[in-house]
Design goal:
With 134 residues, the chain is α+β, with helices and mostly antiparallel strands. The chain has helices at 2-19, 35-39, 49-60, and strands at 41-43, 71-72, 88-92, 105-109, 118-122, 130-133. The chain has one domain: Roll (Nuclear Transport Factor 2, Chain: A).
Amino acid sequence: MRGLVSKLVLTGLLSWLVCLPLGAEAPPPRPASSAKAASALVSLADLPPQGVETYRLILKGGPFPFEKDGTVFGNRERLLPLHPRGYCREYTVPTPGLSHRGKRRIVCGGTVRLAPDACYYTADHYASFRRIAP
């Protein structure tokens, strides 16, 4: 009996896998509310010094140290309020001692780049965000 159950389970798993399109990924889980990100605040003074400098560069329009700075942020995690593609842009907050971009970012949204509607800080590469309160 145990062998029969194992075969049925294995057959079910295999048929499920065969039905998946190649390269398909499960969509990321949607949070209960994108307002959750907006309610968590961090003051500009509480950002790391590199974050304060990045924020000031954003408001000045650069120059930015990384080529990817200012590129469109896709919000695939859907942790920030939903807006049309191109509304949000991401910027690197350098991490001392790293030779790559690291995990820290500021994401700003708005129709005017030098006067964003809102900016968010993440220290964990988009796993969580806090709205920057200047």
